[in-house]
Amino acid sequence: MKKILLLLPVFFLCISANAQKFIQIEDKAFNFGAKVGVNSTFPIVNSLTIDDVKAENIRLQYKVGYQASVFCRINIDRFFIQPDLSWYHTKGDILFSMPQNTESNLADSNTPETDLLQLKTTSLEMPVMIGYYLVKEGPYALSMMVGPKVKYNYKVRYTTHFSEVTNEYINDSTPFELGIATGLGVSIWRLFFEFTYEFGLNKVESDFKDKSSQNPIERNISIDKRTNMMSFSLGFLF
Questions:
Q1: For the Outer membrane protein beta-barrel domain, which residue ranges apply (predicted)?
Q2: Domain ranges, residue 159
Q3: Distances (CA, A) of 91 to 47, 177, 194
């Protein structure tokens, strides 16, 4: 029994050493990986007008979207360059109210005070991040990163609801958006968790058409905004 008790620490030390060797990551000049996650957008609405009448009491409701990315990473000592190709689906609601005289033109007199604009966007994004490892010891790493991002909104659906009247999105005068993204990453072996926050740089204007009648007519409904976004993702580095 004494011999067994003496051999147990040696046994656990061997297992620990082998496990450490197994999860040790060799430095490579090039890696690639994939990640999935969730996001939430934070639109900054500069103006919302309907038939040239400005909306009032604008409020936001944030909703959770989802995303997936593939990327490559070029390693230079503690620095790395990481271009991504990402797919995003984002959504959110904007609550607002219109002056009474405008409200009566869009719906009947029983129209509620608060109206709703629903935003759903599907986009392809390409950030190029420049990162630095704050900690890089064995299988553990902590990194920070920053870089520009280009977004192409290839499917956009904005819908307004005024009681019985629905106005649906026509087109986006600015399908491309520019942003600056910054983030933190925590790695254990080849698994990593990443938090990023994107600051939108350019404004986007959108127009809508009236879908409440059998012969839809174009209505002058426009929104001027830029969008910030927060995202969390879990990934694997090959």
A1: 23-204
A2: 29-97+113-235
A3: 19, 16, 21
In a domain, 2, yes or no: no
Half-sphere exposure of 215 (CA within 13 A, CB side): 0
Q: Which two tokens stand for residue 14?
A: 């061997």
Q: What angle do CA 124, 128, 131 make, to 5 degrees?
A: 135
Q: Kindly state whether residue 13 falls inside one of the protein's structural domains.
A: no
Residue 20: inside a domain, yes or no? no
Given a cut of 60, whether residue 12 has pLDDT beyond it is: no
For the stretch 194-218, pLDDT in tens is: 999 999 988 777 666 555 545 555 5
Q: How confident is the model at residue 183 (pLDDT cuts 50, 70, 90)?
A: very high
E strand or H helix at 102: helix 100-106
The length of the chain, given as a count of residues: 238
**Residue 148 CB coordination number (10 Å):** 14
Residues 6+ apart with CB under 8 A from 150: 125, 126, 127, 176, 177, 178
pTM of whole model > 0.85? no
- Structure token digits, residue 152: 């192409």
The number of folded domains in the chain is 1
- CATH number of domain containing 52: 2.40.160.20
Q: Which residue has the higher pLDDT, 81 or 107?
A: 81
**Beta strands per DSSP E along 98-190:** 115-137, 140-162, 165-172, 176-188
Q: How far apart are the first and last CA of the chain?
A: 45
25 SS3 class: coil
